[in-house]
Design brief:
The structure holds two protein chains of two kinds. Chain A is an alpha/beta fold. Chain A is built from twelve helices and 14 strands. In chain A, helix 1 packs parallel to helix 7. By secondary structure, chain B is of the alpha/beta class. Classes of the chains: A alpha/beta, B alpha/beta.
Amino acid sequence: MSAKKKLKTSAMIASIAGADQPTTSAPFGHALVEAAKKNPKIVGMTADLGKYTDLHIFAQACPDRYYQMGMAEQLLMMAGAGMAREGFIPFVTTYSVFASRRAYDFICLAIAEEKLNVKIVSALPGLTTGYGPSHQATEDIAIFRGMPNLTIIDPCDAVDIEQSVQAMVDFDGPVYLRLLRGKVPRVLDRFEGYQFEIGKAKRLLDGEDALIISSGLMTMRAIEAADELRETGTNVGVLHCATIKPLDTDTILEEVRRYPERPVFVAENHSIIGGLGESIASLLMKEGISVKFSQIGLPDEFLDAGALPTLHDRYGISTKEVIKTLKQPVA
Amino acid sequence: MSQTATASRADVVEVLRQRAYKIRRHALRMGEVQGQGYVGQALGIADVLAVSYFRAMKLDPKNPDWEGRDRFLLSIGHYAIALYAALIEAGVISDEEIEDYGSDDSILPMSGMAGYTPGMEITGGSLGHGLGIGVGMALGLKRKESASRIFNLLSDGELNEGSTWEAVASAAHWKLDNLIAIVDVNDQQADDKSSTVLNYEPIADKWVAFGWETYRVDGNDLEALVEAFDSALASDANKPRVIICDTLMGRGVPFLEERDKNHFIRVDENEWSVALKQLDEVYGVQ
C-alpha cells in the first residue's frame, strides 16, 4: 500500500509557473540589460541575491556596472541612495522580506524622503516560496503603503515586468517593485495593445456578472478563473491594478460604476490587511459607493512552509480556489 | 605652491583657530535663539569643522552644488547647529539666518535635512545612515572618474548602529580611498557616557581590523588635527581613511565644559551672555 506522494517544498521554489504555461526566463534581468544599453546611468546593486533576483543576467552583460554589496540590506539601500545622489539610476535587488522588514528606515529616510531615483526590485513577494515566514513577504505592501513618495508596483507576469523596467527608468523617483523571478509566465501577450503604465489600472476583460480587481500574480489567476467561468455562462470582468500606489482611483471608480450591481472581488498575493483590498475598500467608502465586496488574499497569520501549489490551494489564491470564492454568494 | 603650503604651520593653525572661534560663536548665537540645543557638540567639534572646511575640503561657497566639490555628509542630524555654524563661517549660508534658527519656515531646522539647507548633503537624524550613503556616493564618484571626496562626520554613539559597520566593511572591500570618515568621540550619548551605554573601545583597533587607514587625535588640538587631515589626504593607501577625534563637549566655554549633563544643553537666558563672554576670553578677544 503506498501513501499518496507528498509534494516537496522545492517544487516550484524558483518559479510560480505552471507546467503548461508559456514562460520567459529572467525577464527582469534581460529587460534591465536592454534598458542599460540605452542608458549609461543604470547600475545594478544587490545584497548577495544577484542570482535569485535575476540580476545575474545584468551582471554577466554589464560586469562593470554591477555592484555586489554583500548580505547587508541596510547598506544596499544607503549605497543605492548614494549612487542616486551622484546621478545614477540604481536598481537594487534583494528579497521582499528583507527590503521591507529589515531596511525600512533606510528606504524611508535615505531614499524616499529625498525622492531619490532608486528602484528597489525585490523577489519572493507574498506567497511565492514555501520556505515559511522568514521568506514570505505577506505584509510588504502594508509596510510600504504608508511611506510617502514611494511608488509601489506589483506586476502580473513577464510582459508586465519587461515593460515596467523601462517605465521605471523613465520615471524620476523611488519605486518598489515586487518581482516574479526565474521562469515567469507570459499571460498578458494575448491582450492586444496592452501597455504597462505606472499609476494606471488596465481593464483586461469585461463581464457584467462580477469584477475582479487584482494585482501581481493574482491577475493571472483572475484571468484563468474568468476564462473557466465564461464557459459556464458567467461573465467576470478583470481590472489589473499593477500600481498599488499611487492608486488609479479614476479607472477603479469608473469600472466599479459601470455595472453597479456587480460584486467586486479584490485579489492580491498579500495579506488581506493593508494591501490593495483595503486600499480599494477605503476608496469606495470615501466615494460613498456601496457594492458587494470581497477580498481574495492571504490570511492575517504567519503562513505554513510547504510546497507552493499546496499552499496556494490552502490559502485560497490558486485558480481553483479563486473560482470557488467567485461562486460563493457575496454579502 | 599654494599659500597654505608656504605658510608656516603656526600661521595655519592661528588662522584655523580664528575660524573655530567664529564657528563656536555662530553656534552659541543659534543656541540662544532656541534657549537650548546641542551646543555642547558644536563647541566640541568646532575645531574639526574648521580644519575640514578651511583646510581639507574643496568647495565653492557661492555654488554649494558645484560638481567638483568635496561632499560633507552629516549623519548626526542633531549636530546641525555645528554644521550651520561652519557653513555660515564659510559663506554658504548668510549670517542673518541665525535669527531664524529652528523657527517656522527657517532653512535651518534643528535637525539637519538636505531639502532645507544649502550645503547640507543628506538628511541625518536617524543614526547610521551617513557612512553607507557615503559608500554609494564614493562608488558613484569613482564611476564618474571624479577627484572629489566624501567626508562623513559621525559620532561615537553612531558606532552602536549595526548599519555603520556594514558600511565600514563595504568601504574597505571597495577600497574607497576617496572616503574619509571623521568620528567625534565625546563619550556622551543620550542616556549616559558612550563607554557606559555600549562600549566600543578600543575604537581605533576596530577600524584598523576592518581595513581602514586609521588616525586618532585630540580633536581639540588644531595642530594635531591639521597633521592628521594632511596625512589622510596625502596618503596613497588604497583604503578608506578614518580620523577618530577625541573631543570635549562644550570646549571653549569653561562653565559648559564642566556641566555633567551636556548631551542636550539647556542654558538659562542670562547665561548666554556669560557663555559668549567666556568664549571671547578664551580666545583673547576683548
